[in-house]
Design goal:
Layout (H helix, E strand, L loop, with lengths): L1 H26 L6 E4 L8 E4 L7 H9 L8 H12 L2 E6 L5 H9 L3 E6 L3 H13 L6 E4 L2 E2 L4 E8 L20 E10 L1 H4 L6 E6 L5 H6 L2 H7 L2 E5 L6 H11 L1 E7 L2 E2 L14 E6 L8
Parallel strand pairs: 3-4, 3-9, 4-5, 6-8, 9-10
Antiparallel strand pairs: 1-2, 7-8, 10-13, 11-12, 11-13
Pfam family, one: Methyltransf_21
Protein name: Methyltransferase FkbM domain-containing protein
Organism: Acetobacter ascendens
Length: 289
Amino acid sequence: MTEIRYFLMLYVRSVRLIWRQITNFQKGSKEGMVEIRGDKDWDIPTFFMDPCAGRDQVVNAVQAGGWKHFETPMPQYFAAAVKQAQKGLIVDVGANTGFYSLLSLCVSRRMKVCAYEPFPPVFKILQENIIQNGFSKRVTISPFAVSNANAVSTLYVPDAGHGLVETSASLNAEFKEHIGGHQSVTVRKLDDLHPRGSKVAIVKVDAEGHDLDVLLGAETLIKRDRPIVFVEVLPRADQTGLTDLLQRCGYQDVALLPNGASQPGNRVVYEAQAWNHMWVPQEKVIPTV
């Protein structure tokens, strides 16, 4: 009897060990990851990101000051927009290593994400961050660049001398003074990627100077689904083109200043202290934080 109990005990331990290994394989081991704590009212209060040995600037910022301290105050307004929508699809263009995708999946369990990141080294980090958090069933990640055409184009990458994870590859050849390299990349329109199906609740665009082209390729989607749109407006941005699109779609522009949101307006104007803007349909309530 003693030997039987002993072997049963070994069997149970072996089964538990195998199950733990399977679970870790499916969800990813969080060893070496940085834990990012959100608000208590989020459906999932924490998520994890790979610091890339201190080379991920996004992780460095949130590790030092919390989830609100990267691109303040955009994360707060982004989370508020997710809470307001509660369910639907988030389109994350220029997802980089996944901060906004992960944040949205934690704020509401009913959200799904389609993330686009065309730069292969960063795509791999994004993919791993999604796996490590166990979100693979709620996220589709694609290595496409997004624009106003379906084609093959050139992705320009800045000089890598800074030694950090690159955050600013672009289809715009003039977005940086010094280009370190370039590569061919598949380009798709959001209107063709999302012609129907799950309603798009939020669109986030960070395309390093190519943002207007991304939104022009999503004009049908924007008019149909009326999502909240987060867009980066850089110094060289085509403010006239952005304003024309804003007005055609029936939206208001809100600049996300360090001390809070500006008053909504019907023109897109570059703000030195607020590169991130939020577009809100005229018929919707502006998310508050």
